[in-house]
Amino acid sequence: MSQDQSLIRNFCIIAHIDHGKSTLADRILDFVGALEKRDQAEQFLDSMDLERERGITIKASAVRLTYPHSDGKTYQINLIDTPGHVDFMYEVSRALQSCEGAMLVVDAAQGIEAQTMANLYMALDADLEIVPVINKIDLPSAEPDRVALEIEDEIGLDADSAIRVSAKTGLNIDKILNAVVEELPPPDGDPDAPARGLIFDSWYDSYRGVTVLMRVVDGSFKVREKMQLCSSGNTYEIQSLGVFTPHPKDVKELQCGEVGFLTASIKEVGEAKIGDTITLAANPTLEPLEGFKEVKPMVFSGLYPVDAGDYENLRDSLEKLKLNDGSFTFEPETSQALGFGYRCGFLGLLHMEIIQERLEREYNLNLITTSPSVIYHCFKKDGSMVQVENPAQMPDTGDIDRVDEPFIDATVYVPTEYIGNIIKLCEERRGMQQGIEYVGTQRAAVRYHLPLAEVAFDFYDRLKSVSRGYASLDYDFLDYRESDLVRLDIKINGDPVDALSIVTHRAKAFYRGQALTRKLKEEIPRQLFEVAIQAAIGTRVISRTTVRAMRKNVTAKCYGGDISRKRKLLDRQKEGKKRMKQIGSVEVPQKAFLAVLQLNEE
Fold first, then answer.
1. What is the pLDDT of residue 448?
2. Using CA atoms, how far apart are residues 178 and 180, in angstroms rounded to an integer?
3. Alpha carbon 126 to its chain's center
């Protein structure tokens, strides 16, 4: 039976982190009876263990619901729940392409925040219809009237149209579903045109190959038809089609305007690229759909297996994960200290943490992560320019004319009582203040131009701690600016450990060097010979500590007698230690690398 396109609604829920998107999705599932009582769980659509532990959405998820409206018609509603954190904006942008409308959820206590605005602009760019929702009106600190005025002043949407709900108690959920049906437009695809489907997510299943989540824009797809991928031209037979209701359910056909998944025994992980167009081989489209704009990684880090035998496994795991998250990049690199690994690019620090944890949990890998760094533009005296993603690639100090580093335009939304702390933190990080705007009487937007490298280290954690968790950060890439940067090398017994090298500002090099050497002294176990740990810029050592040698008491059996007997035994021991030091190598334990990563600037 053909699905009437006018009875389909595709919408997503967008909001700042922690404003209640996933809980709202739960209540919508409950209201339409999509889940049995035994299946109900908090944040049902956040299916990853990581999402549940951290209480955040990482992956966008799509679910089909059936809603009988008061006008007597039954509507098919496709709901897509999206992440709120700035590092997962890529997930949001993909979800928006699959919808005609968006629920903009705003917290009744906290009001409009950084990501609320960022997500809204993305939705407007995608030409979506926006329905404002004020959530958490059951909280004692809720001020729905003030937030409604904020929505009118800052966003320009009619405050009276904002639906006031409590996702926790389920209050007014019916009004949201009615607004979806009445205010959002149906899909406008052509059912008779050549079939076109937009891939907006995909993942790898060891039994069925690549599973693709897509939105059918024109035409329709049926099981056993031959499909074609527009980017590669490869054809496959469609093995199965299905939808999430929210449990997977097989269907015979996906029609124009619908959202669902497809398997076609695609074995090559790189085949089904996110943003690619699927069409039918018998009647292919001449115009592929516009994909998603490529995202550029902002933070780079090395990932190395603790066991060198896991290198192949790490490569396969990265390829499979890349299929599910197209926003990180990886390429092979080698390190003298850590062996073979991969240099990976991420959208931010949280993104880096999540990828590392997913690799360790989903693929049972044990990994070492090197210090995060950004891309520097290093201009040499011969006029050439080198892009430095890894501190080890930085040319010698004598060859460098100047180094440019990336700057960001950062806006911190914060309650007014914490403005002083935020300014102090940004000034410490070489920031240049651009202004402070007051949003109402309680909140302010503090704007700074900051070097990305200073933000990539531990800025986000410090921001949360100095504002008791109330500050939120939004940033855009600005430009590259010249800075006085140097490469700080860590040497252990005179040998540089390339994985511990960092690029830092000259003014901070001494303090960073001291902190690094102190931390390594705590983490490197004592040997039978003394171990010198040095921090150096080029050939100049700026900080040094020593791990004392373990000593055997060689004079224990020497009772009384001449002092020269004891001296001879001690001198012999000293000679032995000198020989050991020449041939002995120091194992730097994994926790030393991790300790350097977590090293906070004091």
1. 92
2. 5
3. 22
CATH tag, 5-183: 3.40.50.300
Overall average pLDDT of the 477-485 stretch: 85
What is the rounded distance in angstroms from the CA atom of residue 332 to the CA atom of residue 343?
Answer: 6
Could you count the other beta carbons within 10 Å of the beta carbon of residue 491? 17
Spatial separation of the C-alpha atoms in residues 113 and 119, rounded to whole Å: 10
Burial of 111 (0-12, 13-18, 19+ CB in 10 A): buried
The pLDDT of residue 58: 42
pTM here is 0.61
pLDDT digits (tens, 9 = 90+) for 43-93: 444 444 443 444 444 445 578 888 888 888 888 888 876 654 454 555 566
Preceding amide of 496 cis, omega within 30:
no
> Which CATH number is 376-483 given?
3.30.70.240
CATH number for the domain whose boundaries are 196-280: 2.40.30.10
| 431-459 burial code (b ≥16 CB/10 A, e <16) | beeeebeebbeebbbbbbbbbbbbbbbbb
pLDDT at 55: 45
Predicted confidence at residue 76, as pLDDT, reads: 86
CATH of domain 299-369: 3.30.70.870
CATH second-level architecture of 487-597?
A: 2-Layer Sandwich (3.30)
- Report the phi/psi class of residue 257: left, alpha or beta, with left for phi > 0 and alpha for psi in -120 to 50: left
For the chain, domain boundaries: 5-183, 196-280, 299-369, 376-483, 487-597
Residue 527 falls in which region: left (phi positive, over 0), alpha (psi -120 to 50) or beta:
beta
